[in-house]
């Protein structure tokens, strides 16, 4: 698909240059807002307003929401007050909030000035909630019903008010703003008797989230319960909004990306890779690299303090990369598994002992298998095939014992650190591979020289 | 929530032992299927059938779908044919297929025998599609409408047939099984005139997926377009089923987990961490560990061949971990970024030159910054603070030049390998950190000794 969009952008530019505006409009209206936003991103910046003004109002608003923040800002700065007001009136409140969160202060002020008073109030309410909370991603536009309504009255109400609601398929039953239950449009349509009341029909075992619930937890609830939307309630169980599945999908994707970036030793990025500037990439990457380089001083110090031993048995140096590599890999396997399970809500801090016990047994299996394989490799490849006489049985034994102990300590450290990070309220993903590798590197060297000292020297 | 479920499981067991079956039933029917499945997983295995039989038919089926494969198998083996038939008749086809895919052959045969002929036909059809394709995750239970129907007729049809459909909110307009358009229940309810025909109302710019479309691509389309469902068509554009957002969420989560596991140097797991046995964990982890240990032979060989140089300048050994560590981290930063972008569909193989160019520039910035910091660290910490006279300016220069060159090559290798993996039809995530670290380790050593040879010896 990506390939075909590129040529569409060129075609559209040619048509605009030939002033065939109605043709461009005819093409654009057949398309989906996401695709239009994608194509707009390929255009030269100064042509964007011309294209955008060709879109019908509703499509314009839907496309606007899908665009990148810098393009949105460019457009807003070019909008007249009337244009801005029109676009805002077509947008859902939560989408407007998403836009606002990316804009500089003077643009935010203009947006709030042009939003109608009701919307402005709702925007301000959502902006009050902490970042990454359910309150900050919810929308206030849901269908609410009264318990005494009949099915027929409820359907009438949906027909009358539904056009501005983000979803009409789940309706919430409230009394004095307190959440009593929910009914789906499916329930209403399939109800056998139009005179039944909502109170008869509604589901009262409601699963709701609090305004302060973390967005990652909300996303987990979507994947667990497969609902279209969750009601968001405040501390007094008054209904204040809904979070819909599409927001949850974005959260799931963003949180997974963030975890992956942290695991890869980077600060989380704000933009897709191809849109990030080189300097932004540099900024996100250099911090960890510097930190880890400096912390490698410890491994250097350990080697220095065993320099005389190494000079006597230079063959030991040969196996440092293998030992550190195996330790690093073992540790990152455990940490990555634990971090992902924490993210998916499959693990709690209270599981720490069962995690450690599982990792210890896995480490013993892995350590024994690796040591045997390593001993074989050292004897067959290094000693016989490569003819290195320095690789004696004793040296091989030192390497293999170190290997087993390194795997064991790496797996324990790798599993425990993310759990403590979680306990301390940090993102467990910061405790991933690069960090653990550094610790394990130091550990494996200490074990190595310790074992070597005991057996060889 | 996890904490409170544990005590519920105990309470329920106590009640069962006291034969208070109706109390247990009363408690369970207030709960959501996912929560019941969660609690059931905490029970002793042999009590499971007793509990399960207390559930009303529909709730039983919904709970069954949410359970782990081994519990499902246990239950099926205990079911009478009538029980099995009843559960199946309450299940959606795609859920039945999910269950079947986890069962041994003799259980599968029994399920197919007990399914009604229509369902059996549909199950077999879905089972024919390749694993991870849209066809394999779709359901055949959607609402189809004819273009000539009026809004009123359409609503009547939904009311009559909707109860068995996975979603009624998006309805598909077909003629001779060819997909013509779609209407949502929102469109139908908000239509101004009940006598309008579906043909007037329907959206004809439909975004559909093919039966063979990869499930990861389908999941990406959900997060791009925010639809509730996508129609699945065959090669002749005949409608064969729908994929709904809840399936897409599961796919998104599974694919992210799979990527993360591969990036961590493991084979993808089948089960959640706490449910995996130690032997399963061992099996998923040992392969990569062995492979990477053996491939570390190369780094060992490189060191061996420079043994005499190292014996003369043992101080060089001190910096091997830092250089290899920085190289490995730089490479994994790039590979992780590229792998994630490929997974999200933000990158194509054709972008390879812009990726390389971006990485080269980022690498130069990182390399220069690191080298300067490293030079400072070597002079201030190693030479002055730790008083190591062997760390001369020349040695520091060798280390810093190696650092910059290693970062450059690591970032290029890290970015390119996943893209070639994708091109070759492999999962790019196999080219992640552990693999790239091994290559970069070898590269950095070669550069190190090369530079040292030129400047020092």
Word description of this protein:
The structure is a homodimer. Chain A has about 450 residues and is mainly alpha-helical. Chain A has three domains: about 1-130, MgtE N-terminal fold (Alpha Horseshoe), CATH 1.25.60; about 145-250, CBS-domain, CATH 3.10.580.10; about 295-455, Tetracycline Repressor, domain 2 (Orthogonal Bundle), CATH 1.10.357. Chain A contains 23 helices and six strands. Chain A has helices spanning about 1-15, 20-30, 35-40, 50-55, 55-65, 70-80, 80-90, 95-100, 105-115, 115-130, 135, 150-160, 185-190, 200, 215-225, 245-265, 280-305, 305-310, 315-320, 320-345, 350-385, 395-425, 435-455; strands at about 145, 170-175, 180-185, 210, 230-235, 240-245. In chain A, α22 (about 395-425) runs antiparallel to α23 (about 435-455). The longest helix of chain A is centred in the last third of the chain and has 34 residues, at about 350-385. Residues about 1-5 of chain A have low confidence and may be disordered. At the A-B interface, α12, α13, α15, α16 and α17 of A face α12, α13, α15, α16 and α17 of B.
